[in-house]
Amino acid sequence: MTLKRGAPTRGTPRGQPRVQHGGHRTRIDWFLAILRVTVLIVVGVGLLAFIAQEINPDNPFARWANPDATGLTAAQIRGLVVSGVAQGSMYGLIALGYSMVYGVLGFINFAHGEVFMVGAMTGMITSNKLADAGLWESNFIGSLVFIVVVSIIVSTLTAVVMERVAYRPLRGAPRLIPLITSIGVSFFLQNASVVLLGPASKSYPDVPDWVKAKHTFLQVEGGKILVVVVAAASMAALWYYVDRTKTGKAMRAVAEDAEIAALMGINVNRTIVKVFAVGGAMAGMAGILWGILFRSVIHTTGFLPGIKAFSAAVVGGIGHLGGAMAGGLSIGVAESVGPLVILEPLGVSGVSQLRDAVAFSMLIIVLLVRPAGLFGERLPGEDRA
Amino acid sequence: MKRKLRTLLASLFAISLLAAACGGEDRPEAGALGAVEVETGDAIQIRSLEAITGDVAFLGLPLERSTILAIEDYGPIQGFDVDLGTTLDDLCSNDGGQAAAQSIVADEDVIGVIGTSCSGAAVAAAPLITDAGMVLISGGNTSPALTSDLLGTQGENYNVGYYRTAHNDLFQGAAMAKFVYGELGLTTAAAIHDGDPYTQGLAQAFADAFKAEGGTVTGFTAVNKDDTDMVPALTEIAAGSPEALFFPIFQPAGDFIADQAAGVPGLENTVLLAADGLLNTNYLALSQTEGMYFSGPDTRFGDNVNESTGKTADDFLSKYEELYGEKPAAPFWAHGYDATTLLLDAIAAASYLEGDTLVIDRQGVRDHLNSVSGYSGLIGTISCDEFGDCGAARITVVQNIGGEANAEASMENVVFSFAP
Q: Which residue of B has its CA nearest to A211?
């Protein structure tokens, strides 16, 4: 299930490992090797110290780095993992849009995080209207389905219009140009939201108790289970769409080689619109899940999740859809669990502020070990922008 | 050679004539910081620098508006109008404060600035503005770092020429600690800040005061302003099982902490407390903040009269509602009003007419502010200490009744009062 520009068999083999032509390691190779070992040691020692402190907070190894170590209860560790998985599922859903557009057009659509924000905003407006009408409380599932539909429509439209207005005129231009345009589109959407809805953060109406309360099953909040289930279902639907339908085949063909695909009778422009539409729909879905989980949205809501989702797409191997989901989950879990499980036992203070650092370190570590990402293929002859 | 000498002599003569003409008049010495001359028809320039966009606009907008209303109530100074220009946005951040301050000091006619809303912005703005000879008077900054520790040691971000009518957060931290330890009878507490000088200063002040009361601080950590998933930070705090959790931060991070705390094992029954950064009707209307406690400035101003304009808090509020169609969303409007009248008084005291030109001595403005003592303002009696702390240190703790309809009533639901 890969949407990837350029077939692995095509082009000249430029991406070979350095060892092969030099015969000896360069300084950069040594530097990278040392970096890899250092990172592994830090992570390893942190983990060991955490395990030591879990067994007995008073043992000397746990006390060595962090004299105030108290350890976490099993319920607390479970809470961390679950919240990481829920957050990671959303990163994964957003990452799909980054990955698909990159796979087909070869540029990073930085405005994709804002499409997610538009989805969350639409959900906020619709759900508050439903709450005013009394439907939100009386028929929560029905209302939820309704806001999902509305939000998917709006964010899909946003993505499609964005493609038509901002990117299609630049088709064929060097890749840096649509990239910079996408940054502009991103600011445009953020500021449009400020103008239309104001700069303050806005909340979703209160959700029913079963969403907030922990369920006997797994001791997890209903809302988080909902997020994971919906993300998995969306992922499955997307997989079916891209892998089993004719349109999906057309997308893969355009990703492989747009010119040849056009010669085979595929309408390239229409296929690209569909790619944006599907990415937008996934972002809209993620927006609603965000609203259910965090119940608050502001015009900058899309920025950081957008960047993290982009990192997730890269971690998973950009262009690879399953990889995007896996990357999202691993970044979500790493940033949730990492600070307390690896950094705190090492005696780092204020670890909760370091979650973004952990998330992006995760990106660097994966790229150090597997430069093409977890599921990415090493492509020869690809000029990376 | 001879001609050169003659030119030199002639120019020397001309210069001495000029000097005589200038020095001949009976004119007070301009202070070390120089003076600003305002020609007839021009206006006295002051500026407003507040957080007027984003999540903290609830704090900055009432401050901006209080300055506008105070200038209107005060009227012209020696026949010269006061011009506020366009309000600049401090964005409630270091960067925002710095950028705005740079554009303010580019205009050499500006005498003083009312602002900022956020301590974080003042840390960057205060050095630039005070170095330019202007004064910065804030109705919203409360970080101890900007003035002093109240024991005679100046804060690390103190600048000569900085003043504030808002309280020093050492008072607010002490008030909250006394409330939690003495009133609620809780002996363990934790605090969360977001790295901003205001939030960090207040969380630290609370922790220190709570220890001084005899309590135990079980955790002290920080989140990022744009974090949404607070479970990791709350889990870190939960490891110490505190009975009370104080998070003097802003929205939206405050929304997420209040929402997610109950779901973290170990924090199910922890009492949640916040401060004036979250004390606004928007936050109080959220269902997850029901029952929470908030510290903030005492807003029961009663019959206090601003001695420069003769107005009371009620006069101010009725005019405010008439003009802006709403009540001020945050409690610092009175501080902003008094800050403005203090600046206008100082300008009046430090200026004199020279023909048709008004000359304002910059050092004179500071001298006047330094000597403010027993001034009657909306917030009560105002006296400035040597580090620019002029505010009345009256703090109250309110409890959120719960529900959107009760948000305004909750702002006045005082459960504890503190005065040093």
A: B263
